[in-house]
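Handout, page 2. Input:
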Amino acid sequence: MTIDGWFPPEGDVHLRIWLSGVVFDYTATATAVHNFIHDWGRKHWCTIELVRKTIEDLRLPPRLPCERLFLGP
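Output:
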C-alpha cells in the first residue's frame, strides 16, 4: 500500500476501518492516520481505507478513538 501519491501532509483525513465485516468511519489528523497505517503495517489486524471526497464529507465522522496516541513517533 502506498499513500504518497495523494495523502495530505496535514489536516484531517477520513479513515475507514473494516474489522470482522463491521465498518467504522473516523476523522483523524493526517499525522495520526500516517502513524496508524505504519503501526498497522507490522501486523494487519483489519482492513483500512482512506476515503477521499464523498457525500459523507458534509457530515464528519467521529474522531478516531485515542487519536492522540498516534500523534507521536
